[in-house]
Design brief:
It is a single chain. By secondary structure, the chain is α/β, with parallel strands linked by helices. The chain folds into 3 domains: about 1-45; about 70-305, Aspartate Aminotransferase, domain 2; about 310-395, Aspartate Aminotransferase, domain 1 (Alpha-Beta Complex). About 40% of the residues lie in helices and about 15% in strands. The chain is built from 14 helices and 13 strands. It has helices spanning about 25-50, 70-80, 90-105, 115-130, 140-145, 150-155, 170-180, 205-220, 230-240, 280-285, 295-305, 310-330, 350-360, 385-395, and strands at about 1-5, 10-15, 110-115, 135-140, 160-165, 190-195, 225-230, 255, 265-270, 335, 345-350, 365-370, 370-375. α9 (about 230-240) crosses α12 (about 310-330) and α12 (about 310-330) packs parallel to α14 (about 385-395). The structure holds pyridoxal-5'-phosphate (PLP).
Length: about 400
């Protein structure tokens, strides 16, 4: 039996259902005709009013995770799919990605694959901490707000010590106060400082700011962990050598994100201090993070790391965010909340405008109460999307 499916309010297309052939098929056909009529009329109405349905799904600014796989990563994936290959990381793609990382960072380092950023952060922290340790991080860090307690769980109880600071960056004076407040044996011992680069608010630590945090860590014999889910955006923004904001100034571990840069999945955990990566492979396997067909995580990474695609993608995303922010400010008179230094734009927007934009199909999220919303750009953001969004926001500006 064929029935019609409604597609984004614009066309009616046919799909097949198994033919039941049983009694009552006539009435099913009748109700289907009514259904068809309703959706055809609805489609016509949507076209006439120019209103899009909620499910028309304009996800362009909702997250950099909503982007597709970039063409270079996709091509590399296809190439890896041509024939069989060794499993569990014994393949040539895994080896080549690790070699490329050592070239790009200009140092010998240990490279591991995990499926996502939460695993990268939590398992690398577990490698650095005992249960009686603590981790200094920003109060708005992904570790604290978005990882469902994975760092605490996988470290078997290490505590997150939260520190404030403007624009998502750790304030060292506050970090010092927090450490000073720890009561020797009676508190968990501060063991790691973790920052995100770019931060969760789309800001970037300058080289000297990272160096100051590294110094803070070194002075207290703490490790320095860097959540680089958007590390590519940070490098594109600072236009510096990757080593300049990592191992050269004292970062011990970097979680390097590929997902937001153009792969489907798969982040890298990079240990610059090879003494601390000992047996990390066992930790990954036990946590279910050793991919048997790991070449399908590695190959897209090779696509990113060849011919500077990772930087091109990040530059594109950052540039789109800059243009979006400028147009929001100039044409829609919208307040931009944090400096736009990577690929996110945080805006202050009133509830009626937000509701109206959602009704026009735009997906995006509130990040800070009562009215701060996040708009993300990615490697695939187009100027057309930006113009469409600006046009709708101007129209909806209550
Ligand atoms: C700063 C930061 N770290 C890590 C992650 C990775 O999270 P996930 O586990 O969803 O890949 C994200 C994703 O949004 C992030 O924004």
């Amino acid at each position: 039996m064929k029935i019609a499916a409604y597609n984004f309010g614009e066309q009616v297309e046919e799909i097949c259902l198994a033919d039941s052939g049983g009694p009552g098929l006539g009435s099913v056909r009748q109700s289907l005709s009514v259904f068809l009529l309703v959706i055809a009329l609805e489609g016509k109405l949507a076209k006439q009013t120019g209103k899009r349905r909620m499910d028309s799904g304009r996800y362009g600014f909702a997250s950099d995770n909503t982007a597709a796989i970039c063409p270079e990563a996709w091509a590399a994936l296809q190439e890896a799919n041509a024939k069989s290959a060794p499993s569990y990381g014994e393949d040539c793609w895994t080896a080549r990605v690790s070699d490329r990382i050592r070239e790009i960072f200009e140092t010998d380092c240990d490279v591991y694959f995990v499926f996502n950023g939460t695993a990268a952060n939590a398992l690398s922290l577990a490698q650095l901490c005992q249960s009686f340790h603590s981790i200094i991080c920003h109060e708005y860090s992904h570790l604290q707000t978005d990882e469902c307690g994975a760092p605490e769980f996988l470290t078997k109880g290490s505590k997150l010590l939260l520190v404030g600071g403007a624009s998502g960056k750790i304030d060292i004076a506050q970090a010092e106060t927090v450490v000073a407040r720890q009561n020797e044996l009676h508190s968990q011992e501060p063991r790691v400082v973790s920052i995100a680069q770019a931060t969760e608010f789309g800001t970037i630590y300058a080289g000297n700011e990272i160096a100051a945090i590294a110094e803070f860590a070194r002075a207290r014999e703490m490790f320095f962990h860097l959540d680089g889910a958007r590390f590519a955006n940070a490098i594109a923004s600072l236009n510096c050598a990757p080593k300049a904001i990592t191992w050269e100034i004292g970062v011990d571990v970097l979680c390097f994100g590929g997902t937001k840069n153009g792969t489907a999945a798969g982040e890298l955990v990079i240990f610059f201090n090879k003494e601390i990566s000992r047996e990390f492979g066992y930790r990954l396997k036990q946590a279910g993070q050793l991919g048997s067909k790991i070449r399908f995580l590695a190959a897209p990474w090779l696509g990113l790391l060849t011919n500077g695609v990772w930087l091109k993608n990040a530059q594109h995303a950052n540039g789109a965010a800059r243009r979006l922010a400028d147009r929001l400010q100039n044409e829609a008179k919208i307040d931009i909340v944090f400096p736009v230094e990577a690929n996110s734009v945080f805006v202050r927007m009133n509830e009626p405008s937000v509701r109206d934009l959602h009704a026009r199909g735009w997906h995006f999220y509130k990040f800070i109460e009562p009215d701060v919303h996040r708009l993300m750009c990615s490697w695939s953001t187009t100027d057309r999307e930006i113009s469409d969004f600006i046009a709708d926001i101007v129209a909806s500006n209550h």
